[in-house]
Amino acid sequence: MNDIKSEISSPKDLEKIEIDLFLQGIFEWYGYDYRDYAYHSIKRRIWHRIHAERLNSVLELLDKVLHNPDCMQRLTEDFSINVTEMFRDPLFFLEFRKKVIPILRTYPSIRIWHAGCSTGEEVYSMAILLQEEGLYDKTKIYATDINTNVLRIAKNGIFSISNMKRYTNNYLEAGGTRSFSEYYKVTNDKVKFDPSLSKNVVFAQHNLVTDRSFNEFHVILCRNVLIYFNRNLQAKVHQLFYESLGMFGILGLGDKETISFTNKADYYKELSRQQKIYQKIK
C-alpha cells in the first residue's frame, strides 16, 4: 500500500488525476472533448463551477454533471471563451485592409470562416469592413462557435450601448471610412446593428476539437482561441485550418498566437508578422 501511495507524491498530483477523470467522463457521456485544453485554464473554470454549485470537490461536480444536463450546460458556458469586441485589436483590421483586401478583390466570390466567433462582434466588424471596401455582396461569412447561446446573441446583433464609445474608437483606428453610428440603431440601453450586415452570414455550431472541415475558404479567422488549447490540440486545429484553406488562402490569428513552431509553419508565408496574418503557399 505504501508503494502505491508513493506514486501520488502530492495533493496536486491527485487533483490532476481527478480533473483528467472529470474531462474523460464528460467526453464519454456528452461527447464534448476538453481533454486537451490548457490545464491551468480548465482547472480554474472547473473550480469556479464547483464553488458556484456549492460543492466541495471535482468528483462531486462530475457526479452532478453526469446526472444533471442543466449543470452540464452551465459548465459549458464556463468553458466557453467569450472575450471579444468590435474591431478588437484595430491594427489587425487596418492591416487586413492593406494586405488582404487587394487579394480578395481578385476573386469572383469570397468565403470567410470566423472560427470561435463568440457573440459576433468581430463578425460584424468584418462585415462592415467588407461593405466599405465594396466586397460584402460577393462574400459569404461562416460564423461558428461551440456555444449555442453566444451564437444566438451574435445572430440577433444586439449589444450594450455602453461599449459603443470604445468600439467607435476601435473602428476609426481600424481605418473606418464612415460614421460608426450609421451601422446601428439605439433602443434604450442597447444597439442593434443593421440587418444588412448579417444577410450574408451563416451562424452555426461547430466544435474545433471534434468536428471536421465543412468547406474550402479564402480566409479563416481564429483569434485568441488557440491560446486556451495545449500543444497537441493546437496542432490538430492547425491541421483543420490547413485542410480548410484554399491555396493562397489567408489565416488570421490573435496577437498572442503564431504559426511559428507548429508543423505547418513552412506551409505559410507571413503577410504581417506583427498582426499574425499568414498566407497558405503550399
TrEMBL record:
GO molecular function: S-adenosylmethionine-dependent methyltransferase activity
Residues of the CheR-type methyltransferase domain: 7-259
UniProt xrefs under PROSITE patterns: CHER
Domain of life: Bacteria
UniProt-recorded name of the protein: Protein-glutamate O-methyltransferase CheR
Naturally occurring in which organism (per UniProt): Sporosarcina thermotolerans
